[in-house]
Specification:
- The chain contains 16 helices and five strands.
- The chain has helices at 4-23, 37-49, 69-79, 95-102, 111-121, 131-135, 139-148, 155-164, 186-197, 203-231, 242-248, 266-274, 292-309, 312-315, 321-327, 335-354, and strands spanning 28-32, 54-62, 82-88, 124-126, 234-236.
- The chain has a five-stranded parallel β-sheet, with helices on both faces.
- Helix 2 (37-49) links the parallel strand 1 (28-32) and strand 2 (54-62).
- Helix 1 (4-23) packs across helix 12, helix 5 crosses helix 10 (203-231) and helix 8 (155-164) packs across helix 9.
- The longest helix is centred in the middle third of the chain and has 29 residues, at 203-231.
Length: 367
């Protein structure tokens, strides 16, 4: 096992290798900056590695949501780089355009705004994607999973516990949401997740594996790539380099997640400490995130009521109208149900654009 200092130097060296390979010829570089560990780390290393280059950071501020942009502004000032805050009032307003680009029924497509703004500042964009999955960023998930499992917990129970750590992604009566045309099966979901937990890895490493093989590979990376391609922006994600992915699998557990302190990304935080910028970083895991319950109250519920009133996905037998009717009038809906309704809204819009072809992706969602 290498000393901690060696891992710190090795990670930094690999990131700088990526910089040299991908960014040497770039005069202007754009970066995302959420005030979290990953984006702060890469922006800091970028500035120290290329002090002569023009660096411009982008932050996003969502209406009535947790605002990290002011902290990001302080980090940008500390690093002496330009900084832009993109304000988004109605998170759902350009959902048809976003769905038109990714050609998939997703609703949380905030990266559209970042990629669009980045194109106006540079042809090259750098982001900290992969930090949570590779270096232990989902501390709330690890703590809960470890409280629900132990080394003797059967595989199926581990999968149930993992799903219970993602409770915002599903609802207890989810099987009633879909009509017969979608043959929803919890068993199929269990089979998809089983390889991540039916192995000899430690409990935490099984969670890391499931996180990497789930949202990162099949949601974030392919969706982000479509936005970058659409706006013709070169996308660089140093934390997702092959060398760092390989290194992350070899790291000692305590350099990812400190169980006693319930602290994640231990190794990455050590690099921030080296550059004396760790005190600026937001401690809780947040990133660019919208408060979906506030969004529901201000825009989401009315938009869902409008589009799902004469819903094509209900009419054509995909979604159960009784499930929709049961919850849609509730203004104070539980967050997991709000997320599910926003997913249905995205499905409906996708369906109208690509299946019934009665909607144009230039349409704005306004109330």
């Amino acid at each position: 096992m290498k000393p901690e200092e060696n891992y710190v130097d090795l990670v930094e060296d690999i990131i700088q290798e990526v910089f040299d390979k991908e960014l040497n010829k770039q005069e202007k570089i754009c970066t995302s900056l959420s005030s979290g560990i990953d984006s702060t780390l890469l922006t800091t290393l970028l500035k120290h590695h290329f002090p002569e280059k023009k660096i411009h950071a982008i932050s996003v501020k969502f209406s009535e949501s947790n605002d990290e942009s002011e902290t990001a502004k302080k980090i940008a000032a500390k690093l002496d780089i330009d900084h832009t805050i993109v304000h988004i009032e109605n998170f759902l307003e350009e959902l048809p355009k976003q769905i038109g680009i990714v050609k998939s029924p997703f609703w949380d497509l905030h990266w559209f705004y970042i990629a669009r703004k980045a194109k106006t500042l540079s042809d090259c964009f750098i982001a900290g994607d992969g930090g949570d999955e590779l270096f232990g960023g989902y501390t709330f998930r690890y703590d809960k999973f470890l409280s629900l499992t132990n080394d003797s917990t059967p595989v199926n129970e581990r999968i149930k516990s993992y799903l219970n750590c993602h409770e915002r992604d599903w609802v207890p009566d989810q099987e009633k949401l879909f009509n017969k045309k979608i043959q929803f099966s919890w068993n199929e979901i269990f089979q998809l997740l089983k390889p991540n937990f039916d192995n000899k890895l430690s409990l935490l490493n099984q969670v890391y594996l499931a996180d990497f093989n789930g949202k990162l590979l099949f949601n974030m990376i392919p969706l982000y790539r479509k936005f970058h391609d659409h706006f013709k922006v070169k996308y660089v994600a140093p934390l997702l380099s092959r060398k760092l992915i390989s290194l992350s699998t070899q790291l000692p557990d305590h350099l990812k997640y400190d169980k006693d302190k319930k602290l994640g990304k231990v190794l990455l935080q050590k690099i921030l400490q080296k550059y004396e910028i760790d005190t600026f970083v937001t401690k809780e895991k947040q990133g660019f995130s919208v408060n979906t319950q506030n969004l529901w109250k201000k825009y989401g519920q009315k938009l869902c009521m409008y589009f799902l009133d004469e819903s094509r996905i209900i009419r054509d037998g995909w979604i159960n109208s009784e499930w929709v009717s049961k919850y849609i009038d509730n203004k104070d809906l539980e967050v997991r149900y709000v997320n599910k309704f926003l997913g249905l809204l995205a499905f409906e819009i996708w369906y109208r654009i690509f299946i019934t072809k009665e909607m144009n992706d230039d349409e704005k969602l306004k109330i």
